[in-house]
Amino acid sequence: MKLLVRNLARTTTEHDVRLLFKEHGRVTECTLVLDQETGLSKGFAFAEMPDPEEAFAAMNALNLSEFAGNKIRVKRASH
């Protein structure tokens, strides 16, 4: 299941996002969307978790939680 993470700090790295979701299960892919000019995070990312139960657990645990000083939002990504 692909999850969308929004409101990430601009200093957040792809590795940070992967570690955050890895606490809740297996992460097969993680993509942090970067600003082409600055190379910094645009504030959102995608995380792919193959097990739906783990993905829902991550979504429930992380949505509206604080990460790197920001209250992040996590939901299922639309295809």
From TrEMBL:
Residues 1-79 form the RRM domain. InterPro entries: Nucleotide-bd_a/b_plait_sf (IPR012677), RBD_domain_sf (IPR035979), RBM (IPR050441), RRM_dom (IPR000504). It holds the Pfam family RRM_1. One of its GO terms (molecular function) is RNA binding. Gene3D superfamilies: 3.30.70.330. This is RNA-binding protein. It comes from Vibrio gelatinilyticus.
